[in-house]
Write a structure and sequence with these properties.
The protein is an alpha/beta fold and 500 residues long. Helix content is 36%, strand content 18%. The strands form 5 sheets. The protein has a 7-stranded mixed sheet. Strands 9-2-1-13-19 form a 5-stranded parallel sheet, with helices on one face. The structure holds flavin-adenine dinucleotide (FAD).
């Protein structure tokens, strides 16, 4: 039987992993990418001997990466030199106190008890709940390919949702474990990884704190971009062809089928199968004939965006760890400013990545490569946000907070700066509303309720990536690649049986 030809639109981690999986089974795969390099949100910026990962900085849930490598006949440990980051973060609170989250229970006990006597017991109970949520949601929601509503809304799953406290807000639930607002913040802010406010996110997301501390926060030597490079290498070994600097302009349709793509330069590529890795709401709005779906998607909830500052610095600051969090003031108000007012909080929180502590090769000797990530609302404020002014205020906040921990001369030592606003995320990667994590992961946009991995009308068009099922974050997108590839291989008859 002739194996299908496949065009993948976009060389994000989802597109590359799907391409490799299909090519491994004999499909003839071409990946068409609009940018000059692969990686999408997980790209790399190189300047004057400094290396910056443009998006992800933490490799979480290593088990899901390892599964992808194993499925592709490779061993992750042989291909990536992963280092565990411990403490996972250094958290600096607004009142000058701090907390280093670590897998050392003794160190956690000392720190937690000094903040809130008796809280170590709450911490252990919280981890226990996170463990349960992680295992149950991975098995019954994340890894499952829901093909009809009955599979998702089965009596078993409805009971599961109650068990996972799916209807309880994460920030309300944390009150069962801690009373001190700093601890409540320290064990819920991780919801921002999936672009959610803990005041809106379901309590299920305690799975994030569990997996960080139990399975670890990791960093590949050479930077997060190594993950992309290695996956590309594997894909190329299976003869996947990558084309760069080539935006797809349109997906061509004929009746109930897609037939290929038209590129920005008017060239056409025919394909039996199309996999869209570009942000799903963008695909509906820009690449497919209008059927009303793009408007429906527009009304859905979107995750936040981020302001990014990539700084090449001619000095190192020993007071910084690899991952640093600086918490702003009023937690509730801050999240409301981001998610409701779509702007920058009055006293913003931010994350600072300083990877040279784990991999000195990422900057010239004695220098530093620092990335500040400041969460903000996505594009769409009324009146439209003035990103120039917002960006200036965010930069000032970051420098002022860093001055408080002794980096008061940082501004003088910044050799160069590259910055992103939500408009850069939008124009560079076609992310709708500049929303860095795509469609939100609230309860109404999870599982079967999230856009699925196959188009309902054009059955040979598949979707992979952050705004599809199961959701965003590198490990989750790798699961989406597996689900999409398995569907394709099964439906084209290349694979007769599909492992569940
Ligand atoms: C600031 C930030 C920090 C993050 N931190 C982490 C982290 O620490 N850990 C973690 O696990 N995850 C993190 N994430 C999330 C993670 O980066 C994403 O979930 C993941 O990279 C999404 O991959 P994807 O394949 O779905 O999409 P993308 O990476 O967006 O890839 C889609 C690709 O499609 C291309 N494309 C778009 N339109 C077209 C077109 N018309 N023609 C051709 N190509 C097109 C784009 O250029 C892009 O390369 C972070 C994200 C951001 C933004």
């Amino acid at each position: 039987m002739e194996k299908p030809t496949v065009v993948v639109i976009g060389a994000g981690i989802g597109g590359i992993a799907t391409a490799a999986r299909l090519a491994q089974h004999g499909c003839k795969v071409t990946v068409v990418e609009k940018c000059e390099q692969a990686g999408g949100r997980c790209s790399r910026l190189l300047k004057d001997g400094h290396h910056f990962d443009t998006g992800p900085t933490m490799l979480l849930m290593p088990e899901l990466f390892s599964n992808t490598f194993a499925d592709l006949g490779e061993n992750m440990e042989e291909r990536l030199d992963l280092r565990r980051i411990d403490p996972t973060y250094h958290i600096h609170f607004d009142d000058g106190s701090s907390l280093a989250l670590t897998s050392s229970l003794t160190a956690m006990q000392t720190q937690l008890e000094s903040i809130e006597p008796g809280s170590f017991g709450g911490f252990l109970r919280y981890l226990n709940e996170g463990h349960l949520n992680y295992k149950l949601s991975l098995t019954h929601i994340v890894r499952r390919d829901f093909r009809n509503p009955l599979e998702f809304f089965s009596p078993h799953n409805l009971l599961l949702f109650l068990r996972l406290k799916a209807l309880r807000k994460h920030y309300d639930n944390i009150g069962n474990y801690f009373h001190d607002h700093r601890l409540k913040t320290a064990f819920t802010f991780q919801d921002m990884y999936v672009g959610l406010s803990p005041y809106e996110a379901p309590a299920i997301y305690s799975l994030l704190q569990y997996t960080e501390l139990a399975d670890g926060v990791w960093f590949p030597m050479g930077g997060m971009y190594r993950v992309i490079e290695v996956l590309m290498d594997i894909a190329e070994k299976w003869d996947v062809r990558f084309i760069y600097n080539t935006p797809v302009e349109r997906i061509n349709v004929d009746g109930r089928k897609v037939t290929g793509v038209t590129l920005a330069d008017d060239r056409r590529i025919h394909a039996d199968i199309i996999v869209a890795n570009a942000d799903l709401p963008y695909v509906y709005r820009n690449l497919l004939p209008d059927n009303g779906e793009a408007d429906r998607l527009e009304r859905k909830k979107y995750t936040c965006s981020t302001l990014m500052f990539y700084w090449g610095v001619d000095k190192q600051y020993p007071q910084l760890g690899t991952n640093n969090l600086f918490m702003g003031g009023d937690n509730r108000q801050s999240f409301d400013r981001i998610f409701k007012d779509l702007t920058l909080p009055d006293n913003p929180s931010f994350y600072l990545h300083a990877p040279v502590r784990v991999d000195p090769s990422l900057a010239p000797k004695g220098h530093d490569s620092l990335t500040a990530v400041v969460p903000v609302g996505h594009i769409g404020g009324v009146p439209p946000q003035d990103w120039g002014t917002i960006q200036k205020r965010a930069r000032q906040t970051v420098l002022q907070r860093l001055a408080k921990i002794g980096a008061s001369d940082l501004d003088e030592h910044i050799k160069f700066e590259v910055s992103f606003t939500p408009h850069d995320w939008k124009s560079r990667y076609n992310l709708v509303k500049g929303s860095t994590h795509g469609l939100s992961h609230n309860l109404m946009q999870m599982g079967y309720l999230r856009p699925r991995n196959q188009h309902l009308r054009y059955r040979n068009l598949y979707f992979v990536g952050a705004s599809t099922h199961p959701g965003n974050g590198l490990p989750t997108v790798l699961v989406s690649a597996r689900l999409a590839a398995e569907r394709i291989l099964q439906e084209t008859g290349v694979l007769k049986t599909v492992p569940l």
